[in-house]
Design a protein that fits this description.
about 300 residues, mainly beta, six-stranded antiparallel beta sheet, five-stranded antiparallel beta sheet
Length: about 300
């Protein structure tokens, strides 16, 4: 039922078609399908969403950037030399930092590639250093030497060394970058009188639910991500369905339901999150979907 501008390119679809239950009063605000499987998503403090897409068959990785609230594609299909063995290291001050791998069979990171979040253009790269941490004004990296490691600070936008006399003692923590992002927390017990457990029991049969649930509790609603067993308990492998459910906090009514994955064999943590009042998840690993929770107000 998706509406694509061109089957060969990715696009955004704006419509009011609602998946799942007819009780839905919320609807997807936008959807975006990049070329390949959505491998990873990283929000930025400025309201952008950086995505990593991978074509497993072709062993090809690319990156995209969309506006969280509107779904506008700022850029997509960006590649940075290495076709597969690279990934997202961090994002800070609208600078995307990518890394390569020391060797294909080792998870050790090497090199830093800096990309402008607003344009998708490479700003600089340094193959001789490894990411260490984010600083408030400069990037901290390590340059390996024969018998030691040299700690160096680089300018975010240029990659040039920063004089050590300049003060940069504040480390930027990941939680600081996600101040507008709400990540789900696990819920292991559905028999308590906690609101999240009580409301879930009103809308779902718990017999086939595989614990834990993942929950985001907000003032206006509670968002659940849960797995429902499809195969018999005696089966060696457990086939599950990953479901997303939103319940209004005040009325206790179901306002949105969708299937994230119709069939899966393992539970994936953080299958959804909320960023800038937008509920974000990936349907069937390929379609980034956003629901504006502000519709509840």
């Amino acid at each position: 039922m998706e509406c694509y501008l061109d089957t060969c390119i990715s696009c955004i679809t704006f419509n009011t078609f609602v998946f799942g239950s007819t009780k839905n009063t919320l609807s997807p605000t936008w959807r975006y399908a990049p070329a390949g499987v959505v491998w990873r998503l990283v929000p930025t403090a400025s309201g952008k969403l950086i995505g990593e897409a991978r074509d497993v068959q072709k062993k090809s990785a690319s990156f995209f950037c969309v506006n969280v609230r509107t779904g506008e594609v700022l850029w997509e299909g960006a590649r940075f030399g290495e076709p597969w063995w690279l990934g997202i290291e961090a994002v800070h001050n609208d600078i995307l930092l990518l890394h390569k791998f020391a060797t294909p069979d080792l998870p050790e990171h090497r090199a830093v590639i800096a990309v402008d979040v607003l344009t998708g253009k490479e700003l600089w790269r340094n193959e001789e250093v490894t990411f260490e941490r984010l600083g408030s004004t400069s990037l901290h990296v390590v340059r390996a030497q024969a018998f030691s490691a040299q700690h160096v600070r680089l300018d975010y936008r240029t990659g040039t060394p920063v004089e050590s006399a300049e003060v940069d003692v504040d480390e930027v923590m990941w939680d600081d970058l996600l101040h507008d992002t709400e990540l789900p927390t696990p819920l292991y017990n559905l028999t308590t009188d906690e609101p999240a457990a009580v409301l879930f029991g009103r809308h779902c049969s718990t017999e086939e639910v595989v614990l834990p649930l993942e929950v985001v509790e907000r003032e206006d609603c509670i968002v659940y991500g849960y797995y429902e067993r499809l195969s018999a308990p005696t089966d060696e492998r457990v086939c599950m369905k990953n479901v997303l459910l939103v319940v209004a906090s005040r009325s206790g009514e179901e306002v949105f339901r969708d299937v994230i994955n119709a069939r899966c064999w393992a539970a994936a943590p953080e299958a959804f999150f909320v960023c800038h009042d937008m509920l974000l998840y990936v349907r069937e690993r390929t379609t980034l979907t956003a629901v504006a929770l502000r519709q509840l107000h």
